Amino acid sequence: MDYSKTLRNNNKIYSRTSSRQNAMQCSSDFNIRFVLSGNESYQIGRRNLSIYPDSFLILNKGTHYASSVGSNDPAQSFSINFDQQFLNDFKNSHEQTDRSLLEGQGYLQRQEDEFNETIYPFKGDIRYNIFHLKSRLDNGLQDEMLINEYLHHCLINYYKIYNTEVLEKAGNLNFLNSSTRVEILRRLNMAKEFLYTNFNSNISLEDLAEHACLSVNHLLRTFKQAFKLTPHQFLVQLRLQRAQQLLKTTKYPINEVVSMVGFECPSSFIRLFRTHYKLTPLKYRMTA
Questions:
Q1: pTM of the predicted protein model
Q2: Distances (CA, A) of 72 to 1, 20, 47, 194
Q3: Residues 196, 134: one domain?
Q4: I need a surface site. Which of 86, 143, 170, 173 has the fewest CB within 10 A?
Q5: One domain for residues 22 and 148
Q6: Do both 109 and 25 map to the same domain?
Q7: Are residues 167 and 187 in the same domain?
Q8: What number of helices (H) and strands (E) belong to the chain?
Q9: Which phi and psi (to 5°) does residue 15 adopt?
Q10: Does 154 lie in the same domain as 67?
Q11: How many domains is the chain built from?
Q12: Cβ-contact 31, 87 below 8 angstroms
């Protein structure tokens, strides 16, 4: 169901089904973008990122980007634009002590912080929150107090993911200098984005390292520190995850799914899938 909703506090919600390419745009607010079916490709500067139903993207206010549908099928997208005052109020209440807030010390004019514009996993509480909100909106929810509570919880859940995907992973890196950790993680996130976007291609370590502006051995060492997986293990897990989604939501033959997610051998795919999910792909499809 397609709609756009602007709340009285200028938070905005969009639900769209699209099969076209959009020209270069500028993000007017901090926003979170989800793809509930199909996939979308984004160009941000020199970076190309693809968003699938297992991931979401953050765009900061003022970011220039172009988007397009990355498949033959239309993509169903759902996005939330947060008004700056609502976002600042959330940051104050989230980061300040109750005493500071009661005394009014927390409500200071602040510069607009920028979040790490990268691909994040769409799972757990934030996934439940977004699907529940969309279901209520699809069924005619108009209560703005309740809608804003959903948006508040969306930010809470995003902060949790940001803490896990950015702050904790930066802390896992064995560098004393904090600015070095931040820069290495930025480059590792570029490698992660490359895997998310090109998971069904034949990716070499050299390609991945070049994209991240790291040497191969530096990439291998720091990627494992940050993500607790080697790049190859991360890629295999991602391919299995995408295969699981295709088995659940489409009728493509299993052999076709194998090639669509980048595996070359159906037998090795079946073995890996069974090891990871405790079911063969066929049994998973029958029970999904």
A1: 0.88
A2: 19, 10, 22, 21
A3: no
A4: 143
A5: yes
A6: yes
A7: no
A8: 12, 10
A9: -125, 120
A10: yes
A11: 3
A12: no
Structural domain boundaries, residue 267: 234-287
Q: Give residues with Cβ within 8 angstroms of 61, minimum separation 6.
A: 27, 28, 29, 30, 84, 112
The single-letter DSSP state of residue 241 is H
Q: Can you name the residues that pair with 17 across neighbouring β-strands?
A: 76
Lay out the sheet containing 3-6: strands in order across: 3-6, 12-18, 75-82, 30-37, 55-59, 119-121
Same domain, yes or no: 31 and 73: yes
Tokens of 67: 């988007």
Q: Partners of 67 in the beta sheet? A: 22, 42
CA 227-288-283 angle, 5° bins? 95
Residue type, 245: Q
CATH, residue 102: 2.60.120.810
| pLDDT 10s digits, 20-68 | 777 789 999 999 999 999 899 999 988 999 999 999 999 999 999 999 9
What is the crossing angle of helices 178-197 and 216-227, to 10°? Answer: 90
Q: Of 155, 137, 121, which Cα lies nearest the Cα of 15?
A: 137
Q: Which long-range contacts (CB under 8 A, 24 or more apart) does 173-179 make?
A: 173/222, 173/225, 173/226, 174/225
Nearest partner of 49 among 168, 191, 222, 223, judged by Cα:
191
Between CA 189 and CA 195 the distance in angstroms is 10
pLDDT in tens, 128-187: 999 999 999 999 999 999 999 999 999 999 999 999 998 899 989 988 788 899 899 999
Please indicate, yes or no, whether residues 140 and 165 belong to a single structural domain of this protein.
Answer: yes
* Count of alpha carbons within 13 angstroms of residue 53, beta-carbon side: 15
Q: Which tokens in the block code for residue 241? A: 């995850």
Question: By percentage, how much of the chain surpasses pLDDT 90?
Answer: 76
Contact 195, 54 (CB under 8 A): no
Q: How far is CA 244 from the centre of its chain?
A: 17
Helix pair 178-197, 205-212: axis angle to 10 deg = 130
